[in-house]
Amino acid sequence: MAKRHNVMAAREVAASARWTLGANGVHSEYQVMRHMCNIESVFTYEGTHDIHTLVLGQDITGIPAFT
């Protein structure tokens, strides 16, 4: 559950930092956009959020949602 929360929190922090910096948020001088892209790849491409949700569901119900 902590790993799932950490990914979501990291996405929110990166988005807030990007919004706070405005146009500088996408500039290479600041690493916000690079970090944001890395977090999005973990969340979306690797399916971290979905896998953690399935693991938590199995732990709570005892019924595996994947094989």
Structural features, described:
With 67 residues, the chain is mostly helical. The chain has one domain. It contains three helices and no strands. It has helices at residues 2-21, 32-45, 48-61. Helix 1 packs antiparallel against helix 2 (32-45) and helix 1 runs antiparallel to helix 3. It is elongated.
How many runs of DSSP E, i.e. beta strands?
A: 0
What series of H and E elements makes up the topology?
A: HHH
Mean pLDDT: 82
Any idea how many domains? Answer: 1
Q: Termini, distance in Å?
A: 20 Å
Name some characteristics of this structure.
elongated; 3 helices; 67 residues; mainly alpha
Topology of this protein?
Blueprint (H helix, E strand, L loop, with lengths): L1 H20 L10 H14 L2 H14 L6
Helix pairs in contact: 1-2, 1-3
Summarize the structure.
The chain contains 3 helices and no strands.
